[in-house]
Write a structure and sequence with these properties.
mainly beta, 22-stranded antiparallel barrel, 6% helix, 5-stranded mixed sheet, single chain
Length: 976
Amino acid sequence: MCAIPTIAHAQTTQPEEETTKPAPTPTTAETPVQPADETSRPQPDTGEIIVTGSRIRRNPNDSALPLQIITTQEIERNAINNPEALIAYITTNGTGGDNLASNVDVVAGAQRGNAGASFANLRGQGSGATLILLNGRRVAAHGLQGSAVDVNQIPFAAVERVEVLKEGASAIYGTDAIGGVINFILRKDYQGLGLQGSTDVAEAGDHTIFRTSAIAGYGDLASQGFNVMAAVSWSDIPELRANQRDFVDTFQPERGLSVDTRGTPHSTLVSFAGTFFPNAASFPFIPGTTTRASGGINVLDLPGAEGCDAIRDMAEYDAELWDFSSAALACAWDTGRAASLQQKLETLTWLGRGVVAFGNHEVTAEITGSDAASARRFSNLQVTPFGAQPLRFPVGAPGYDEVYNRLIAAFPELASRPRAPFAYRWRCMECGRREIFTDTKTNRYVLGVDGPAFLGWNYRAGASYASSESQSELGTGYYFRGTLGSGAPDPRAPTAPGAATPGLIGLLNSGILNPFLLPGQQQTPEAIAALEAVSAEGVVLYGGKYSVSQLDGSLSGDLFELPGGTMKAAIGVDYRKEKYRFNGDEREALARPVIMAAPFDDANALEGVSRNIKAAYAELLLPLFDGFELTAAGRIDDYSDFGTTTNPMVAFKYRPIRSLMFRGNYNTGFRAPTFNQVHNGTLESPFAGRDLADPATCPGARPDQSVPGCESLERAITIFTGGNPNLGPETAKMASLGVVFQPMPRFSASLDWWHIKRENSIQTLTLRQLVDNFELFPERFIRDANGDLLTIDQTWINAGIEKTQGLEVVLRGAGDLLGGRVSGGLDGTYLLKKEEAAVQGGELENQRGVFTFSGDLGLKWKHNAFVSYGRGPWTLALTQIYRSGYENQELPGVEIGRITPPDLVERVDDYTVYNLSAAFDVSERMRMTMGVKNLFDKDPPFAITYDSNLGSGSSWDPRVADPRGRSFTLNVDVKF
């Protein structure tokens, strides 16, 4: 985990160098090896190139664009070993659930397709609103998710630099460029052989990251007229388990956190028809109260028993924190400690490219690809009785008498009842953690040509095809249910040895498996063998493929002279065809026995959908008078599936004196709905949370058992999720205003204010947003003839408005000291405003510095600061990474004032870590970089991230912190 200590706004390198030299200030930079449009060479003598965010050649040192450039030296010095690590510590990037650590537990909706993928999220606008380019052209969205680009597919070994445009750019690039653009520029004219190896070893000894790469090239483009090169890179990020870190502990009731699950390794007794407790009224009263124990009874929690904590990761269910008094005799199990903190990801990327010069014209052919294999592991299966799962532990089964006798001893009044099967909630530890394996393959082919056209103008044209194809399959932890929707036996499911009926339900109802094991007891070998017989391991879960074919062409050049200089222009056209397919369960429709808890997403299966996009754009650069430059651009996009959108842009740059520059920008943007958002079917799921009540009968919709009409909706309703064929694009208006001050060559400062207003946002409103605005969405609350709530419709919608506003600060300074050079700097983002309203004209709600389960966590302040010293072959650097704290989540009992824990943590602490690195040039051909990440071994701050709706999350926030602790890095780079 590290920052980018020497980043310039327009930093570049001399053409003869292979890597980018660090620039001392945001405005004093050196010219890149190649421009952002990597097929376009710098103009002779002028140093003008095409940079990200424009189609006109210009001097990057004198541009109005707020462009951040990250060099290969910076990447190596900070031991950044993959694109996710690079993006995570760009302060302009938001704080969303876009990384590998945020997608390791139980997730819902589109996140089911995020396995092994990482996304960018500039200015907190979401991964779908950040455009990812490779050498100036689009790449395919992730094959399962279908809406954003997985940055892990980038051939990192061949990256020459990364350009980050911190500005909306729909007037140039079209859809998605609302938060900004990240353009990965690959090396173009590499000669020789380069080998690189790096490792990142956690001090705890339980997590080591490896990366190795090779690059080779032959031919001098300038003298020989050609160059061919190839690169390959392999990286391995192993799994890090939550139970390997002590800060993961969801049982901290004194601080306001506990687990809302009664599915435990030693089962909790619950009600179900035909059992000892057929309904809620059949439970005894909790001793000393008038409340029945209808929330469940765990015999380990009865007076004189061993206690819930007698079994690892179990504890008492906190009925006060969850405002669920009838569960006071239940136990809970820490689901968070069963999850991964970092999912395993093994990635292979490759690149092959050739460039041939024909006079002043160049033809480029390029192929890139990747193969990524990930493993997501999380909590063991919870088995709960309901109509389709008639779970009944039989009288006389091993373990039955022990539970019965303990129950009667505690509640003698129950002895008069005849013995009957028990219904229960069980956490199947013998089933193993649930696993989902995902393999994603990407391919990209590009053919481009550029050169002089006429009258000093230049042309650029190309054709490309990119695809991303993914498939997920079930690992351990998933089992055939063995029942139909009616609860009757399902003959399609396998039957375990010794069981009378199929599947896991049949096995449990046979009594062969004992869900009431006491501490120290184990299942019999026969029970384990029977469990394996009904495993669904290896079943394909789902798969998808996204592809984009593109043809583009543009012309750029000079027009005529104006008082301030030469007027320039660019025009271009763009044609794309995007295709997407998603398959759910691949088994034959008549041979699909239900697999318990498997997220097949059959309702979202798409046989294959596509759209055609035709676009044209133009850009003008007008130097109206000395020091003042105006840029105007516009683009029209025509989509075959929803229509046409036009987006203009106007920007200015004014330099009254050499050391001072003012800049500003206004533009509009749009984001097209994804195929999933439009075409997905509707999925109906039971609501399992305890944090909602019916807003029509309970003001505020906060559950409170003491108030009639405010009962929790847990298991009482269902939730619709899925697509909406009536979606249109969301639109945005963006503005910025900035100043750059450079009073001397080795010092500079810049400050940019920016504002984004998004309307008709494409979103799934959270359940809390829906109930808080239920009078505005009556059609989304489906009721029966008596007015009782049956379903909440949470499908995609164009709704609401989002306003985000912030300041971006860049400071740079350098000087000579003791025969060497000392430099320092800071990159910071201060969030002035982050507000959302569920509907147009609705009341804006503050989202800045406030906890939220989904989307971007609006931290008020983020910065990376550094100081470095270089002398001779040595360079030392110390980096500070800071992320501000925010308001913590409150569980229901705290929220309604039922309880105030003694050490309640109302605010998540700030997060600050330091990284130290030392680089040494062993020779002209060998460089070694060593480092310590998280120098003081800082744990993530305590945060209440547990989500009762999904049974996921714990005591830290993966959107903010790194769970690995202190680690040691080594990178060796050798060139031949």
